[in-house]
Amino acid sequence: MASTSTTPAYTNSDQARAQAAFTASLRIAGSMTVGGAFYGFMSTAAALCAHSLIQTRQSRSRKQLTFLLAYVGTLWLAGTAVVVGMAGVAIDAYVIHASTSLQSPYVQNLAPGGFTSVADIPLWIICMLSDGMMVWRFKVVWSMSRFYRYLLAAPIILYLGTSILGFLAFVVFSKLPVTAGDSTTFNVYLVTAMFLSSFCLNVYITAFIAGRLFLYRRRFKANWGMPGSRHYSSMGTILIDSYVPLTVCTVPFLATYLINNPAEYMVAVILGEMQIIAPLVVMIRVSRGVAWDSSMASESLEDAVDRMIEAQSLRIV
């Protein structure tokens, strides 16, 4: 991960070593302990999603099933690479180069390439796949609204910005140093802009999907009472389908990254895994028919509610 601040002048070597030891503990705990735990959650979500897709394969074509399974597999492989890369960076810094890494907390950023690329490039791939899923969910929920064509422009621009900035930072300029020199500043700006673009996309889509589903919930409740778990509008459903957990996890990462706090390495691993878990949970709900999908979006919001109320009235009669 790139650093966002310059090296301060330490006058107390003991203080520098103490801060370096603290940073080392956070990086090791983040990449191995916390990262391993969230990797387990992510692997479980991937297995459940693949199982659910296969179990409900009758509802989709073979090409669709293959594409969705490939999507899940790619996310899992990228998530595995992030954890391996972060762990490799920690081992390289605090085992192989321990004599220099523990002198100052700012001597621990490794040169580009190696385990750094193993962690950074998959993190960018995860970001693209996760954000792409969010844009698709936005389309599903809002496609029949008369405001859809105007609302879609912002997420597309933000998604393209995230993809292009990440490609430039982690692929085109991956050989540039990230700890010193003018090229470092340029690369750090690219990475920072990429994360900010992704964060803005998350907030935008979360707000509009949650707002759409909340309006659906309010009208449903006014006409029929409290909606059930299969009515796409319980509060838990709104939180999950609008990617609130992912957006919440992005905030501490941006905060620690922008102020160059050592906790950024721990939060980066958590964010990388959450970017996989969040879309997989939504895919599980879609495959089981308990999330807002294209069959609901094919009619207007009001018509969807009216059809459900009419169907319930017929059952009562």
From TrEMBL:
The chain crosses the membrane at residues 36-54, 66-90, 150-173, 193-215, 236-259, 265-286. It comes from the Eukaryota. Keywords: Membrane, Transmembrane, Transmembrane helix. The keyword Transmembrane applies. This is Uncharacterized protein. It comes from Coniophora puteana (strain RWD-64-598) (Brown rot fungus).
